[in-house]
Specification:
The complex is a heterodimer of chains A (233) and B (86).
Chain A: H1 7-17, H2 23-29, H3 35-38, H4 40-43, E1 55-57, E2 63-64, E3 73-77, H5 85-103, H6 112-139, E4 141-145, E5 148-156, E6 159-166, E7 170-176, H7 180-185, E8 187-194, E9 200-207, H8 209-229
Antiparallel strand pairs in A: 1-3, 3-4, 4-5, 5-6, 7-8, 8-9
Helix pairs in contact in A: 5-6
Chain B: H1 13-55, E1 56-57, H2 61-85
The chains are: A alpha+beta (233), B mainly alpha (86).
Chain lengths: 233, 86
């Protein structure tokens, strides 16, 4: 029987001709240029060495869960520190409450051990409030890599929301800066329309929104260029 | 002591003292419930730090985790203290 009618033979030949590439091999073929080569915004930024800033370009000490080996973090953003003014103010007011109550003798009817216990409990509540505000601020980050954008919303201690979108899925970027304070301290929000499951990702109250918008536009262009030049599989 | 000034007219001292003890017992229970709820809050904080430090990896996470654990230990000590002094 000629080989052409032998299905086993054909499948063997096929296997030899087209060896399957595994995922890691495919990833290595993605060739990214360094962000400084194509981004006007990032070229002038020095890599961030700290981790407590709200605007961290090319961070050296930050990485995230599910980060690919070939994926580079370009920018990490948090809400502008000015957004923490309100909770700081509330904390100060809360700290003053025992002083005010003591001055009017409101807890004088209680024995001294109960007064001390109420004071300890109150200061613990204040610390808990301030610590929670800090944790929500610290862990709610917006990450821009050369592949995608990631929005990590640490809404409260029991609720977090992580959404991401590929750069090539971004359809529209809108900057919203309103009010005297936002203009004065250069912070605002960016609304990113995507073609993914979550149609809009919002970077809220981030510093330098116009710079971030420009960077996103540069990344979109670079992604298109990668496709044209065949640098992406 | 608690209601002595308010109810001192026409009520004998033994009755007032027992009512005092009853009221303070209620306040003590409220304090213990408060510290128990706060303990749950402190445990959730540590749990969340553990979860989030895997999401965002920075060298600052051990510091935050240490603060969270110290906070939890402090709450436990205060809880025991409340049981002893109240």
């Amino acid at each position: 029987m000629p080989d052409v009618f032998d299905s086993k033979m054909k499948s063997k030949q096929k296997k030899v001709e087209t060896p399957q590439k595994n995922v890691s091999e495919v990833k290595h073929e993605v060739c990214h240029r360094h962000v400084d080569e194509y981004s006007e915004v990032m070229r002038h930024e020095t890599p961030a060495t700290g981790v407590l800033s709200a605007f961290m370009p090319k961070p050296l000490l930050v990485s995230f869960d599910n980060q690919d080996a070939s994926e580079n973090i370009i920018l990490v953003l948090r809400s502008h520190p000015f957004t923490l003014i309100k909770p700081i103010f509330i904390t100060i007011i809360m700290l003053l409450v025992p002083v005010l109550l003591r001055s009017v003798g409101m807890f004088d009817f209680l024995p001294s051990n109960y007064q001390a216990a109420s004071l300890i409990l109150w200061f613990m509540i204040i610390f808990g409030f301030a610590f929670e505000v800090f944790l929500v601020w610290f862990f709610s980050v917006y990450i821009i890599t050369d592949e995608r954008i990631i929005d990590v919303d640490f809404v409260s201690l029991i609720h977090k929301d992580i959404s991401s979108a590929k750069i090539d899925k971004i359809e529209d970027v809108t900057t919203v800066t309103g009010g005297a304070l936002q203009s004065m301290f250069d912070f605002g929000s960016i609304k990113i329309q995507t073609a993914g499951a979550k149609t809009e990702i919002v970077f809220e109250n981030i510093p330098h929104p116009s710079r971030v918008t420009k960077l996103l536009n540069e990344l979109i262009l670079e992604e298109e260029l990668e496709k044209i030049e065949g640098r992406v599989n | 002591m608690l209601l002595q000034t308010a109810l001192s007219f026409g009520v004998n001292s033994a009755g007032i003292e027992s009512f005092d003890r009853f009221l303070l017992g209620g306040v003590k229970i409220l304090f213990l419930i408060g510290i128990l709820l706060y303990l749950i809050f402190a445990i959730i904080i540590v749990r969340q730090i553990n979860v989030m430090k895997k999401t965002l990896i920075t060298p600052f996470e051990p510091v935050i985790l240490t603060i969270g654990l110290t906070h939890l230990a402090f709450v436990l000590i205060v809880g025991v203290l409340f049981l002893l002094i109240l």
